Amino acid sequence: MSEHFLLLGLPFLPTGADSFAFQYKNLVSLLGAAGKDVCSFAVPNFKVGTLDSLIEASDELAKLDLQVENSLEKQITIMQEICEEPRDVVATLRFNQTQEMTPAAFVKGFQWSSAQFDSNESILGLVEKFANYFATTEEGVRLVMTKYNETRNKLTTVTRKAQGNLSVKPIRELVTMKNRSHPFIVDTELLTNLFVAVPLSSKREWLNEYWSLNDFVCPDSNCIIAEDSEFVLNSIVVFRRVLEDVKLACRKRRYIVRDSDAADEPSIRDLNDFIKRAESEKKNFGLVLRQRYTGCYVAWVHLKAVRLFVESLLKYGLPPRCISIFLQVDKRKEAEIRKKISQLYPDLSVPFSNTSSVEDGSLQYEYPYVSIKMTNLQRC
């Protein structure tokens, strides 16, 4: 897979009929073996306007071109994270549930969509529509990412609780089940239970010393509710009036006080249900982003078409007589085709700076014809 696509705008050849179809076939024939790598890129004849408007459109299109490419790159990175799929998969265009297409295939078969962008509108009007469309898409992606990050942060917290050890996971159900099999709950005007998660390594120390945390801790009141590979969940009976003092004494010894009656503590079942909903929501975020990415890419190709038209007019003048072609080739074949083109157009003036690549938002100035680079977003 080549790193870049190329869009070239070449003037009509001096021989043959004055039509795009004939000129394109003639060009492919004259290119010989290299012609098999050339694809037609259909560009409508837009309303030209004034020279000043063309220059303004050229500047605005150059800025937009670069902005949109950066936005598409960002969207691909986000989709890779959310969808957990490789770049070549997420960069595939998805028009609906059954229709998919690679970016290369779309550009090769590109047809201008007048329903989306009216080709009878002025070029500056189209530029404004592009800008508004991309701004709306960017805002949509931002909103999706905000919601996704909120869900992801909640999911991280919930997963930590649901799959964590006894120092963090919900204990209400554990306490209820233990009390059913071995009643230990004390709830009187004077006495109450205190639940403490003790590191497994400190289990013996706790059993020997818990009653000395305060004079009003009831001796022999410890009940082991549950145990995992890291913590032991204990219950002790204390006088209500010293409850906060006992909690403080536990924390000083790095024991973790747990609350089984926390109003906002969900059950383990609730946590598992939330995890399932969050995963489903994450999948939906991926689908929405793919739709926005596809729409943005399609609009980007339309922008490239307008840009190719504008730059060709500025280089070759009126009337618009340009052969627009698309290339997807490696560096070696690109060099062969460019050499052939130079032989077919010996009269095209060579730019002053033809020793190094100079670019303005993918427009390559070092060639005597219009050459616009288009990043292959599906590259590995």
From TrEMBL:
- Keyword entries, A-Z: Hydrogen ion transport, Hydrolase, Ion transport, Signal, Transport
Q: One matching Pfam family, short form?
A: V-ATPase_C
One of the entry's Gene Ontology molecular-function terms is: proton-transporting ATPase activity, rotational mechanism
Report whether Nucleus shows up as a keyword of the record.
no
- Where does the signal peptide begin and end? 1-19
Purpose: Subunit of the V1 complex of vacuolar(H+)-ATPase (V-ATPase), a multisubunit enzyme composed of a peripheral complex (V1) that hydrolyzes ATP and a membrane integral complex (V0) that translocates protons. V-ATPase is responsible for acidifying and maintaining the pH of intracellular compartments and in some cell types, is targeted to the plasma membrane, where it is responsible for acidifying the extracellular environment. Subunit C is necessary for the assembly of the catalytic sector of the enzyme and is likely to have a specific function in its catalytic activity.
A biological process (GO) annotation for this entry? Answer: proton motive force-driven ATP synthesis
Q: Which family does it belong to?
A: Belongs to the V-ATPase C subunit family.
Q: How does it assemble?
A: V-ATPase is a heteromultimeric enzyme composed of a peripheral catalytic V1 complex (components A to H) attached to an integral membrane V0 proton pore complex.
Q: Which GO terms describe its cellular component?
A: cytoplasm; vacuolar proton-transporting V-type ATPase, V1 domain
Q: What is this protein called?
A: V-type proton ATPase subunit C
